Amino acid sequence: MAIAAGDFRTGLTLIVDGDPWQVLDFQHVKPGKGAAILKTKMKNLKTGNVQERNFNASTKFEAANISKKSAQYSYTADSTYYFMDLETYDTYELDEEHLGFNKYFIVEGSEVTLMFFDGELLSVSVPEKVELTVTETDAAIKGAPSNQTKDAVTETGLKLRVPQFIEPGEKIVVFSADGKYSGRA
């Protein structure tokens, strides 16, 4: 099915130059003269590269057929992450560089969504909010305002800012999109 650049929406997957790309952001620009231009921010699902590209609004693209499967994270060995399909018990592996920022939100036993293109495992999608355990924090400052934050590190190695009252060993909820503190678990 052909998709015109003017019909883009966030999250759309399509084939550009033979590779599957996902639209992260887009903006229609109508200059004073000439045809409308679509400014996009896109992610190559094979390489993980993010690029800003411009297209003529009438340009057509083929939709990328991305299939998804639920899986459970099993373990990591030599920077390779292993996942098990919950229906067939097949095992899939993905190296750390393809996981990118998502590696900080995957803990043993957590459920994820595997994304495939033409039978090839491309990436892993994690839930919007993830529960993580704090392993290290700075000491709380006595008399500090309640809205002041301090540095913390989670079990997955994610470094973030948390409120003063959070201590090591506590479970917190973190947004997977940007790695920011959401609340206590």
List the defining traits of the structure above:
single chain; 185 residues; SH3 type barrels; OB fold (Dihydrolipoamide Acetyltransferase, E2P); 3 domains; six-stranded antiparallel beta sheet; five-stranded antiparallel beta sheet; 1 helix; 16 strands; 2% helix; flat
In brief:
With 185 residues, this protein is mostly beta strands.
Report on this structure.
The chain has 185 residues and is an all-beta fold. The protein has 3 domains: 62 residues, SH3 type barrels (Roll), CATH 2.30.30.30; 60 residues, Nucleic acid-binding proteins (OB fold (Dihydrolipoamide Acetyltransferase, E2P)); 56 residues, Nucleic acid-binding proteins (OB fold (Dihydrolipoamide Acetyltransferase, E2P)), CATH 2.40.50. It is 2% helix and 55% strand. The protein has 1 helix and 16 strands. The strands form 3 sheets. It has a 6-stranded antiparallel β-sheet with strand order 1-6-2-3-4-5, with no helix packed on it. A hairpin with a 5-residue loop joins strand 8 and strand 9. The termini are far apart. The mean pLDDT is 88.
Taken together, the total number of domains comes to 3
Helix-strand pattern: EEEEEEEEEHEEEEEEE
Cα gyration radius (Å)? 20 Å
Distance between the termini: 43 Å
CATH architecture type of the largest domain: Roll
Strand proportion: over 45%
CATH topology grouping of the largest domain: SH3 type barrels
